[in-house]
Amino acid sequence: LGSADDDTIIIHSDTDFQDIRDTVQETLWEAGLDEDISYEVRAAADDTEQRRQDIQSALQAGRSTPDMFMMDSGWTIPFILREQTLNLEEQLSGEVLDTIENDYLQASVETARHPETDELHALPLFPDFPVMLYRRDLVEEAGYDTEGWATEPMSWQEFSEVVADTRDQSDVDFGFTTQAAAYEGLACCTFNETMSGWGGAYFGGVDNLFEAGDRPVTVDEEPVLDAIRMMRAFIHGQEDEHALEGYEQIAPTSIVQWIEDESLGPFQNGNAVAHRNWPAFGIAETAGEDDFGEAIGAMPMPYGVTEEESEYEGLGGSRVALGGWHLTINPSTDKIDECAQILEAFTAEEVQLTMFEEGTWFPPNLDLLESEEVQEIEPLNRYTDTLQALGDRAVPRPVTDIWNEQAAVIAIEVHNAYTGQKSPEEAMEDLRNRLERSEADVEDVNAN
Amino acid sequence: MPTDAPERGRLAPVVDWMENLSEAAYAYLLLTPAFALLALIAFYPLAATFRMSFLEDQTRGAEPLGGFVGFDNYVNILTGDARLARQFLDVQLTSGFPFVELGVGFFQQALFVTLAFAILNVLFTTLIGFGQAIVLDKDFRGRRWVRVAVIIPWAVPIVIQGMIFYLIFQPTVGFGADLMNWLGLFGSDPLASSQDSFFIILIADVWKTSAFMALLILAGLQSVDRSLYNVAKVSGASAWQRFKLITFPLVLPALLVAMLFRTMDAMRVYGLIESTAGCTTVPSLTCMVVEALFGGTRIFGTAAAVAFMTAAIIGVFISIYIVKFRDQEGGVY
Amino acid sequence: MARVTLDGVTKRYEDVTAVDDMNMEIGDGEFVTFVGPSGCGKSTTMETIAGLTQPTEGTVHIGDRDVTRLPPKDRNIAMVFQNIALFPHMDVYENISFGLRLRNYEKEEVDRRVEEAADIVQLEGMMDRMPEEMSGGQRQRVAIARALVREPDVFLMDEPLANLDAKLRVHMRTELQRLHRRLDTTIIYVTHDQAEAMTMSDRIAVINAGSLQQIAPPLVCYNEPANLFVAGFIGSPSMNFVEAEVGTDELETENFSIEFDPATTDGLAPGDRVTVGVRPEDVYLDHTADGVEHSTGLIDARTDVLEPMGNEVFVYLVTGDDAETSMEVEGGAATDDQLLMSVDPDTEIDIDEEVKVVLDRSRIHLFDIETGDALRHGLVEVATTGSGTPERGVGDSD
Amino acid sequence: MARVTLDGVTKRYEDVTAVDDMNMEIGDGEFVTFVGPSGCGKSTTMETIAGLTQPTEGTVHIGDRDVTRLPPKDRNIAMVFQNIALFPHMDVYENISFGLRLRNYEKEEVDRRVEEAADIVQLEGMMDRMPEEMSGGQRQRVAIARALVREPDVFLMDEPLANLDAKLRVHMRTELQRLHRRLDTTIIYVTHDQAEAMTMSDRIAVINAGSLQQIAPPLVCYNEPANLFVAGFIGSPSMNFVEAEVGTDELETENFSIEFDPATTDGLAPGDRVTVGVRPEDVYLDHTADGVEHSTGLIDARTDVLEPMGNEVFVYLVTGDDAETSMEVEGGAATDDQLLMSVDPDTEIDIDEEVKVVLDRSRIHLFDIETGDALRHGLVEVATTGSGTPERGVGDSD
Amino acid sequence: MATETETAETQSDDQEREQGPLERWVGDSISDPNRAYRPMFWLVTVFFLFTTLFPFYWLLMVALTPEGQLQDVWLTPNGFNPGVFIEVFEILPFHRYMFNSFVIATVATLVVLVVASLAGYVFGRLSFPGKGPLMLLVLLVSFFPPAAFFIPINDLFNTQFAILEPIMQDGSLYNTPYALIIPLSAIFMPLAIFILTTFYSQIPDGLEDAARVEGTTRLGALFRVIIPLSAPGVATAGVLTFIGVYNEFFFSFLMTDGQPENWAPILDGILGFQGQYQTLYNAMAAASIIGVLPMAILVVVAQEKIVSGLTAGGLKE
Ligand SMILES: Nc1ncnc2c1ncn2[C@@H]1O[C@H](COP(=O)(O)OP(=O)(O)OP(=O)(O)O)[C@@H](O)[C@H]1O
Ligand SMILES: Nc1ncnc2c1ncn2[C@@H]1O[C@H](COP(=O)(O)OP(=O)(O)OP(=O)(O)O)[C@@H](O)[C@H]1O
Ligand SMILES: [Mg+2]
Ligand SMILES: [Mg+2]
């Protein structure tokens, strides 16, 4: 009853990948892949959670197909830790490994390595990071010069003033829309990047991201609290006693029940000034010919404190959450060699470019964004400079084997703080306790 | 399907053999297919899961489960030390009645949320379902279409049911949030509030599952021997008395089955929550099981323990019905 | 006031007319029995009175109220259903007390009445049995008791005693009559038991194919049946019918003739054909016919079949010389050369014996051969015939 | 071979013993009727034979097979249920043909048989009615037809005619007898109708409170009842019972005495108390007693109630001078100073008249006052009494 | 509640099947004051219709709203795009998903009805030692969230069994319709058993007795008399099982890889319109409306079987 004939490699992925499969296959062959090796995409649900569960049950059951999995960079490490991926260092050629080591966006590669051995277990397929979109037309009408905004981050304070002012001057209802529902996205991304922009971290800086157990929990430090207070100012305004002073009320309260799709709505309908979202989605939906076109501007995420002001290395300044997807090989597959060859072919530059052209998947080698091919792609070409600027600012979430557990708690407590059910201090205090307990649990286990 | 014609050749010995079994042996024989299926799909997995609940969680490594830890997993769940986003039972006690901190905190207790949900749900679905069934039991033109209309919510998949209510209460999309806010019943972001979401989920579930009750009660109503109504009418029973003294007691067995399964289903509510407010906003017992199992962090031991705790709670709650069944004259238990 | 009046009541089902233009007035406190062949519409008529069935046409009055559209509960009736229809979920006590509990009677009153009713139907000590744990007759008695406990304006009883043994039935009959006397309730009753119909009723309503044939006191129906149907239906075994031609001073049947002066009867002239009816008990062996004042001449016959019944013997006779032994004996429905006679069990008589019989002329009925309407009851005028004086059953005589 | 043998069959429900150590052998092709008061265990016995109820103790044989544990379908029986039990979801045709269709009979054969049966029960043209669209009697006839189409070894019929009118009942009786003769099937029958029991059965089984009282040909049961219960149960109205003390040459009752020589009877001695039984038809007014050979002396009585039945009149007499008019008239169950007499309808008699009556001594029964067992039938030996010669009903006589 | 019931009940007074409802109404309302309740009855009916249908109507509005314009949908769609009902078949082979679900649900329903009928007969009509505990055991299955079965079943169904080798691709049930039919039958079994037990137990013994005397076996009586007479109950159990299986989510996800050609059920199809960041709500809405249609048809068909008062007229007791 299986659909694939026996020599075809089956990749567990999504419909987007399925749609571009033929072109990509061609390109792979052009890039030197053995003509006998073909692959097929099995599109699972597009929802990342469901895909993870799907993969989890396949690997748990030791199924031999699919042969390869496309995994979110946010949850690849747990699979690596559970020995459900193949160590690629033994499969890929040194040359390819070098390319990955040198050319690929390092933040991304970090999430594809075994945190203890540093061995590569997944091939980054594409990275992703959000941008701040804004209505350039409205902002300019309101009298602001947007020159340089595309690459030069501004502070949140300035941002809030600009947005509030623009909103008041134009007839839109909302200033800034983002995602703040109590879901993984809050923990991994929107709050993570805001907090990072304030120089805060969950576990004391970027060095402790991938190994749970013996690391400090720093969620109740001032930068983190400030990030929350700022958001409370955005949401509730200055009447809120926990609002950070000097920040305008710019976000609708509804953001606390919004995820990507809902939050885009008002902006897409011309009812918001600024909007934070993933570019492949946000830009595609708003900056097309039929939509707002050139009126949409993009800028890096604003910052709370500058990099210098930040206590931790690599934090502060404009920060964006790192997303993106990797490819891994199913350890139970009978076609390890073929899989490895496919992976190698995916590292070819033309393949990366094709993927961007066809599926707006950023090349893991961000330098390729400057290439001519990219410059021809509407409407993304208008925003490549912003996107490129983001690469260095990407902060990965602290993915460990217990990250999902921690993410849920983080989302709840941050959400509690956003909605005002708890004061920022209270929420972060509670969060710290929960996280410490969770860290201690792994430490116990590892000690055994 | 078994044949009954004595003349039929080949099956005859089997049929004879079956006919001559004692009542008990015959009963066990006929139960075999059902129990075989249940053993494979239910009893065996449950036994395996039960075993899992006594093993340690292993978040990394190839082996999903560690060594035997006795009741540790259960104890952790009860003391609120489990690795779960929301806790099973995390009550703040107060000195005043009802001795439990209600309000926000209340809606974040999986146990209480689930129980409150189940009780309210069964209450409303029973009342509404009964009303619907009575309407559908009448003969009137267009009854068939009304019947379809009443049953259709039951045919809507849970994800879609969730989507409908999720979108209705999405401030920029639907009208629900604004309407309820304007009425002063909900806050401005109901799907972000545990309390408001609880009621949204309740409404959504009552909307869908009343049809289940209606369908079963209707079947019960239609099995009532109509001549009994004639007797009752002549005896002078008013419509209400006929309902109370004839219809209700005769429908009661079907009603009890409907309520029993509705209770169990309501106590296992998950999909609807996941597709509307999310498990972090409105935690239910099953939410916890699912999150433990699929949350990404591998805590299978805990997950198994939560599942069994959930079953135990449902079991305790359900025992009310079992007592009721026993009371039931000619009842099934 | 619980007069029950049916006015042109008709009940049609898709393809059947169950009740056909029924007109009837049943007096307050009267005991009327419906009799008629199976499927003739007795139950349907009752249901119309009870309000369980809406007549297709016509109206029903109870007392002075038009109740045609009134729901059953407002008619103040009690009914024993032919199909018994006990509430399966209630025990005997609950079944019997159902109507009382509906009316919120005091517990003691309910208990008292239930006990009394249970006593009447001899079900003491069975109060907590469930219907399924009872025998057919016991169930029927519960159904009767359920009606008895009430004190309605009208009792409707549809074959209430069908499943009871003879003794219990006699007992129940007496009890019902007593009840009737005590409460002075109107009772409408259906039975297939002629004895029951005869002894209990003030009047009998004979129904056939949905329409009323005769409604009259039992003995009138017996002695002066309105038509051939009634004559044949009432009385068991049934009346003998023979076709005859009216002569100048006799009735000429195929095998014998009967002295008769057609002038005494309106509309009859010599040469007309009529149906002659005579009951088995009005046929006598010549030597036992001493008491018969107006007997016919001797009729030659041969005994064909004897049916001993304990307290009497039915003798199937064949008249006419050429008659073979009848192939068929359909109880009472004798063909033209058959004659059924009832004699004392002591009578010495044998099969295939040649006998001579006489008929009691004062008890011979004549019917129109086409319409079946009665033309004449008794070929001679006799002062002592029971006719015309509606004697009542046992209920009245003590 | 379809002998039916019950061996110590007992059926106990939680608190009731429905059938109590029943022993009975019913011959192949015999027609046996069960009679007995409501709730005595008739239906339960039938269900045991059918295999619908497992006896608590004892065994059932059909032919030579022990069928006690055999399922009903393998017993080759057909049954008419007291509660009719039509399949509500099947029309008349389907109901009747159910058993045949189960056995995969040819369509034509099924049609033929169904038609024949429908003809017998007079339900032609109702083949596609549903049960709920029929009258009570029609339903019962469908139930009969459903049994008739089969050709089983044993027919079990539990009050099959209870809801039919007199005429139809007579017709059905004849048909059943014809069928019985034709198929020579064993038939076990329950009825409350004495006439039915008397005329149809080869033997009657009288059951009381779950145990068999007598099984004998109808006239034997009538004339020589085995005990007080049978005597009182068989015959309608019931036998008169009077307590008496045995004197040296008479029986001394409270109000009159009867000539009797105790020496002629074993175990009776002067001074013993006995129950004297006499049937109403063996009580005569002195002036009509000409034919009675062995009459008693005159007994003074007063008429209390008259119950005219059409073909006879029941006269309730009160004997003894001080007797007041009885308050209660319980049909046949006379108290010691009551006596029920049946007379010709022509007899001139009035209420509250002083009369003299005699009893037929050859028809007087004596019963043990404690056990109720019959001691003697007829106080004089008469050659012509019907006893001992099992005359058969109409079924045999043509 | 009380008033609703009373109103509705009153309607049945003098209900006559052979008269047209309108004719009846006209006739009755003139002479019977009870007819005043009729408007109340319609009021209640309309209320139920509104409450049950409104969300569904709203779903239709969502479906008709073009993609990306999902704003302020109240009584009318935001835009009008009926083409979505065709698009859902173009984006995905949605018909195949429907077909899969339909086949799986039909087979599972049959299996459940037959197996549960046997069990229902036993529990409802026979008495034997251990009946109570066994019923409780059946019920026990429903105490557990489906997730509790997940890990062992996942292992079981991915295990390769040599005996299955000839039939199944790789000897495991994964990605076959059996992988759905078997567990779903078991999961919906307890409900069906309880429903059928209740209804079978209510059929009077007299009818079963009559059938057995006529020559059926005990099972024959079940299939020929008890089941037809329990038509309302059986139809209900069937409808509930069918709908349940048709829309089942958990095991469907577990036992197939979501590919239509691998027997993925309709829910996989509906969720196929969900993207990582974005959901094609209009397509999902349209798909589910289309997906619900077979169920509506089923209900119409099944209710023909639910004939009122079937037991009437059979018994005299
Ligand atoms: N299921 C039962 N549980 C308890 N007692 C029962 C049950 N079935 C019958 N009985 C009792 O057993 C006795 C015999 O019942 P059965 O039905 O055989 O009587 P019957 O002779 O047929 O009476 P009838 O003439 O009234 O039909 C009755 O007293 C009845 O109450
Ligand atoms: N629902 C119905 N549909 C069609 N015909 C019916 C319906 N109910 C009764 N009938 C028919 O109406 C006629 C009268 O029925 P009814 O029940 O009044 O007869 P009955 O006199 O009580 O007979 P029985 O003595 O057999 O009980 C019968 O021929 C019957 O078949
Ligand atoms: Mg009738
Ligand atoms: Mg009986």
TrEMBL record, chain B:
Locations listed in the record: Cell membrane
Keywords assigned by UniProt, alphabetized: Cell membrane, Membrane, Transmembrane, Transmembrane helix, Transport
PANTHER family: BLR7065 PROTEIN, SPERMIDINE_PUTRESCINE TRANSPORT SYSTEM PERMEASE PROTEIN
Gene Ontology annotations for the cellular component aspect, listed alphabetically: plasma membrane
Name this polypeptide is given: Carbohydrate ABC transporter permease
Gene3D superfamilies: MetI-like
Record InterPro entries: MetI-like (IPR000515), MetI-like_sf (IPR035906)
TrEMBL record, chains C, D:
GO cellular component, one term: transmembrane transporter complex
Enzyme Commission code: 7.5.2.13
Keyword Transcription regulation among UniProt keywords: no
Reaction equations catalysed: L-arabinose(out) + ATP + H2O = L-arabinose(in) + ADP + phosphate + H(+); D-xylose(out) + ATP + H2O = D-xylose(in) + ADP + phosphate + H(+)
Bilayer topology term: Peripheral membrane protein
Gene3D superfamilies (UniProt xref): 2.40.50.100, Nucleic acid-binding proteins (2.40.50.140), P-loop containing nucleotide triphosphate hydrolases (3.40.50.300)
Domain spans labelled ABC transporter: 4-234
Keywords: ATP-binding, Cell membrane, Membrane, Nucleotide-binding, Translocase, Transport
N-terminal signal peptide: none
MF-aspect GO terms: ATP binding; transmembrane transporter activity
Membrane-spanning ranges: none
Cell location: Cell membrane
Known role: Part of the ABC transporter complex XacGHIJK involved in the uptake of xylose and arabinose. Responsible for energy coupling to the transport system.
Family: Belongs to the ABC transporter superfamily. Carbohydrate uptake transporter-1 (CUT1) (TC 3.A.1.1) family.
PANTHER family: MALTODEXTRIN IMPORT ATP-BINDING PROTEIN MSMX, TREHALOSE IMPORT ATP-BINDING PROTEIN SUGC
Assembly: The complex is composed of two ATP-binding proteins (XacJ and XacK), two transmembrane proteins (XacH and XacI) and a solute-binding protein (XacG).
Protein name per UniProt: ABC-type D-xylose/L-arabinose transporter
Organism: Halalkalicoccus tibetensis
Lineage: Archaea, Methanobacteriati, Methanobacteriota, Stenosarchaea group, Halobacteria
UniProtKB/TrEMBL annotation, chain E:
Ranges of residues in domain ABC transmembrane type-1: 98-302
A GO CC term assigned to this protein in UniProt: plasma membrane
Chief location bin: membrane
Any one Pfam family match given in the protein's UniProt record, by short name: BPD_transp_1
Coiled-coil ranges per UniProt: none
Keyword entries, A-Z: Cell membrane, Membrane, Transmembrane, Transmembrane helix, Transport
Ranges for region Disordered: 1-27
Keyword set includes Protease: no
Transmembrane segments: 40-60, 102-122, 134-153, 178-200, 221-246, 280-301
Xref: InterPro entries: BP-dep_ABC_trans_perm (IPR050901), MetI-like (IPR000515), MetI-like_sf (IPR035906)
Membrane topology: Multi-pass membrane protein
Subcellular location: Cell membrane
Ranges annotated as biased composition (Polar residues): 1-10
Family per record: Belongs to the binding-protein-dependent transport system permease family.
Protein name, entry field: Carbohydrate ABC transporter permease
Origin species: Halalkalicoccus tibetensis
